[in-house]
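FAQ
Q: What does a multi-component entry look like?
A: The components come first, one per line:
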Amino acid sequence: MSSLVRFGVSVEEELLSRFDRLIQKEAYANRSEAIRDLIREHLVKREWVEGKEVAGTITLVYDHHRRELVNKLTDIQHDFHNLVISSQHIHLDHDNCLEVVVVKGTASEVNDLAHRLKSTKGVKYGALNMATTGRELV
Ligand code: NI
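Then the predicted structure of the entire assembly, as tokens:
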């Protein structure tokens, strides 16, 4: 485990009070915890920009009755089988399915897969949650 370091930060009073109000709403225990999260968020963003190995989830909502669409989404996942760790299919209601695809790979490959799935005709909603393998974070 890495040791804790204290450091001072100069910031405009108004900016700090807005930050404090925000983190209070978000139920942070203290500023340190909120700032640690901001730093981690920034580092994870860089992992994606720099094309590192990343992990994430792709969420899709689509109409279950469009059989050709279901096949197409499965075909695309097979094309990228080296990235797909697992997928979960949830029957939301009579018509709608929600699928969560858990992925790990280089940022550009994962982005390609997400775009291919989201842009498939008939997908009502598609989103990529850009997470991290956690290896470069503490
Ligand atoms: Ni379904």
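Q: Is there any commentary attached?
A: Sometimes. For this entry: Residues 53-131 form a domain with the Alpha-Beta Plaits fold (CATH 3.30.70.1150).
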